[in-house]
From TrEMBL:
Species this protein is from: Roseateles aquatilis
Organism placement in taxonomy: Bacteria, Pseudomonadati, Pseudomonadota, Betaproteobacteria, Burkholderiales
PANTHER family to which the protein is assigned, alphabetical: OS07G0170200 PROTEIN, SLL1193 PROTEIN
Protein name from the UniProt record: Restriction endonuclease
Molecular functions per Gene Ontology: endonuclease activity; nucleic acid binding; zinc ion binding
Pfam families: HNH (PF01844)
Limits of the HNH nuclease domain: 78-131
Keywords of this entry: Endonuclease, Hydrolase, Nuclease
Any coiled-coil regions, as ranges: none
Oxidoreductase listed as a keyword: no
Source superkingdom: Bacteria
């Protein structure tokens, strides 16, 4: 289980391990939490009282401290794993849902023709369609796109990272995801 770490204003920062979260709790760096405690860490026993130390971890924690505003202006890092998840494992040309191993990152404007490797120029394609399109644009290959690319929001990116997300975490993240997002498609 991972804990969703937020900045104090509620913007997602990272997925952290329970050990990393425990350090933040122990150093009094947690400003506030969301969700019911989902994990209890047990420590040693106090010599005077005989009581065992406990830390109850919540699925979502906000950490004190400022994050530079420029950190939120950048687009999420592009990876095949997140691209395929964004596009729901569906080929943008033929519309077939394909297993991840049979998908490719397709550049709408080919890189060899000054296309860039970015969220707005990349879509998911099956190997057959990618080979058929080749080094052409979709118009030149007479292959219409079934959906358009987009840059995932910060909240979508946290979902696309492929963690086992707890219900409280998913509810929090989806609350800030536009209803038009492909993440709502089945």
């Amino acid at each position: 289980m991972d804990v969703l770490q937020l900045d104090i204003s509620g913007r997602p920062q990272a997925w952290i391990s329970t050990k990393e979260a425990a350090v933040l709790y122990a150093s009094d760096a947690v400003a506030w939490t969301l969700g019911e405690p989902c994990h209890v860490l047990r420590g040693g026993y106090q010599r005077l009282t005989g009581l065992q130390s406990l830390i109850s971890l919540h699925p979502i924690i906000a950490v004190r401290g400022a994050i530079p505003t420029r950190a939120w202006r950048q687009a999420p890092a592009l990876s095949n794993f997140k691209l395929f998840a964004r596009d729901r494992y569906v080929c943008a040309y033929c519309g077939h849902r394909v297993h991840m191993e049979l998908l490719t990152r397709e550049h709408i404007q080919p890189v060899s023709r000054r296309g860039v490797d970015s969220w707005m120029n990349c879509i998911t394609a099956c190997r057959a369609c990618n080979g058929r399109k080749g080094n052409r644009t979709p118009e030149e290959a007479n292959m219409a796109l079934l959906y358009l690319p987009y840059v995932p929001s910060l909240h979508e990116d946290m979902i696309l990272r492929g963690r086992r997300i707890l219900a409280d975490q998913m509810e929090f993240l989806l609350a800030s995801v536009p209803k038009s997002s492909r993440l709502y498609e089945s």
